[in-house]
Structure formats: C-alpha cells, structure tokens
Design goal:
The protein is an all-alpha fold. The protein has 7 helices and 2 strands.
C-alpha cells in the first residue's frame, strides 16, 4: 500500500471516528441516566457498551472500505473492479462487528431472572430505518443491473450515441466488472445486518430494567446499526449514481445522466440524514416494542 493510501486511511478513519466519538460523548452526557440508582447504573453500563461496539464497528468498516479503494486495478477489462464495492464491503464489516458486539452484551447476573420476558422481532426493532435500508438496496440493485446491461462489450465503458461514420465510448463506466462485486458486497451487508438485528431483538434483557427501558436500549442499538449500514450502502450507491451521471453526460446521454444523478442525490441525502440522526437515537418516551407475531424473525 502506498504512502498516499496510508495517509488516506488515517484521514478517513481518524477524522470521522473523532467526530462520531464527540457526538456520542455529548449525547451521552445530555441523556445520561442517573448513576445513583441501580437501574441508572445498569443503563449507563449498557450505553457505554453500545458506544464501544459502535466505534469498533465503524473503525473496522472504514478500514475495509479504504483498503478496497486502495486496491490496484487489474489490467484485464473483464476482471472484477473492487473499488466500487468498497462502501458496501465496509457496511458488511460494520454489521458483522456489530453482531459480534451483541454476543458480548452484558449477561444478567442474578441467580433468578428478574427482568420481564417479551418476544421481539427484527421488524419491530428495525422500524422505518429497516424499511429505508431495504428500499435503498432495491435502488442499488436496479442501478447496478441497469449499468451492467447498458455498458459496452468491455464492461467498463459506454457507447456514445450513434453518429454516421464514427464510433466512440466514454468511461470508466460501472458495467459488470464493477457491478458484480457491488452486488456481492451488498448481499453480504444485508445478511450481516439481518443477523445483527436478530441478535438485538433476541438478546437477554438486563436485570432491573422495565420493558420500556430495555426496549429503548434495543432501539438505540438497532438505530445505530441500521444508520451505519445505511451510510455505507446508501452512500456507496449515491456515489456510483452521481459518478455514472457524469460519465453519461460526457458520453452524450443527457436524460439518463440527469436521472442517474437525481437518484444518487436523493439517496445520498437520505442516507446521510439517517446516519446522523441515528447517532443521537434516544427514546424520550420509551414504549414497549410490539411483540413479534408467531413465526416472525
């Protein structure tokens, strides 16, 4: 890895991590539970664990993304290009580390379970953020497939509108050499997210907390998980669509260029907004989550 790539790695990882840490610290001070009570101490320890897991997952995800971005491109026209898949792979790594973090969640210490039992499902803890992520995944899949089928035969350029007596192409264009790694990384990100959400929904409740307090902690975990994955998946497809819009415009396809850029802009703004709001996710009026129906995941 070159010195430039190492410098980029430090900037991309260190700066966002410092900013996120500051936001989480300020949020924690503003909404910190009263440590003077046993319930407040349990909630404080749980929030500290949640923040630690989030920062570890964010760091690993950023490193994976930067390493793939810095990976050398093969000379073969049909060889996979991993750079476009970097944000999606980062999201997959983020969700995987979050899942590992859920396995280290504090266990009840009492000899007899004191916390109330309630069955929860992935959809109940995911809420609207899960719906947004799934919609973004559909948009990403449609975009990648559309780019793959409209690319030239080499998969990395696009043909300009036909002009009698001339032929020309523009690129780099995200055909299948770019699209296949993106789809694979997207699938891994969704699988890892589903697994982590399932662990959030099924983890043991902490002793001394009411159902509403325990559900508030689960909502925080789910919101930060989905917010981070949304940033990787949504930010990745937004960048891809915006870049493709520039290539299409240069190739002489103004309407497809405008459509691609518009989709990228909308998805990008929505994803960044979802991520930022997830950092300060708190239930000011916590209510119990709806129980999962029989057979639900």
């Amino acid at each position: 890895m070159s010195l430039v790539a190492l410098a980029l790695l430090l900037v991309v990882v260190a700066v966002p991590t410092a900013l996120v840490t500051a936001v989480l610290w300020l949020t924690g001070r503003t909404h910190a539970p009263d440590p003077g009570s046993s319930t407040g101490l349990v909630r404080k320890n749980a929030q500290r664990h949640e923040t630690t897991v989030f920062l570890a997952a964010a760091g690993v995800g950023a490193i994976v993304a930067v390493v793939l971005l810095a990976a050398p491109v093969s000379d073969g026209d049909t060889s996979p290009r991993l750079g476009g898949a970097a944000p999606f792979a980062g999201a997959a790594a983020f969700a995987a580390v979050r899942a590992v973090g859920e396995l280290t969640w504090p266990r009840p210490r009492a000899s007899r379970r004191l916390a109330p039992l309630a069955r929860r499902g992935v959809r109940s803890v995911g809420g609207n953020r899960l719906t947004l992520l799934l919609a973004t995944a559909v948009v990403a899949t449609l975009s990648v497939v559309a780019f793959g089928f409209t690319a030239s035969t080499d998969g990395t350029t696009i043909d300009a509108p036909a002009v009698p007596g001339t032929t020309s192409t523009s690129g780099p264009y995200p055909g299948w050499p770019y699209g296949v790694p993106v789809l694979v990384a997207l699938g891994l990100a969704l699988l890892a997210t589903a697994g982590a959400l399932r662990l959030v929904a099924r983890r043991r409740p902490l002793d001394g907390l009411t159902v509403a307090q325990d559900d508030a902690l689960r909502r925080t975990s789910a919101a930060r998980l989905l917010g981070g994955v949304q940033l990787g998946v949504g930010g990745g497809i937004a960048a891809l669509d915006l870049f493709t819009g520039l290539v299409l415009h240069g190739a002489g396809w103004p309407l497809p260029a405008a459509a691609s850029a518009t989709v990228g802009l909308v998805v990008g703004v929505a994803s960044v907004t979802a991520f930022v709001t997830s950092l300060a996710a708190r239930d000011t009026r916590p209510t119990p989550l709806a129980p999962a129906p029989v057979g639900a995941v």
